[in-house]
Design goal:
Length: about 100
């Protein structure tokens, strides 16, 4: 799976950026900012590179947030458990489609 530098969701263009210092008190490894049209991913944690699967799932997690925010479904947008499970399942489907 290749993570693009930009992605369009519902007509809005989002920049995809990387930031090694992203990890915050909640332990997030990625974040979505609708106002700034950005998805930021943390590629390494405390000097240790994250595995590619974790980075891809973090990206998809933020994509799910972006989609749910676009639909104005606040309950779904705030449901971290659903978002993480859906991102992990979506990752599995994408890997199968890619034949990997």
């Amino acid at each position: 799976m290749k993570i693009p530098k930009i992605i369009q969701i519902a007509g809005r263009v989002f920049d995809v950026e990387y930031d090694d210092e992203l990890n915050n008190e909640q332990g997030n490894h990625a974040t979505f900012n609708a106002d700034k049209c950005k998805i930021i991913i943390q590629p390494s944690c405390k000097g240790n590179e994250r595995n590619i699967q974790g980075i891809h799932i973090s990206f998809l997690h933020e994509i799910v947030h972006a989609i749910s925010k676009t639909t104005a479904n606040r309950k779904l947008y705030e449901d971290e458990q659903f978002t993480e499970q859906f991102a992990e399942l979506l990752y599995q489907v994408i890997k199968q489609i890619e034949g990997k």
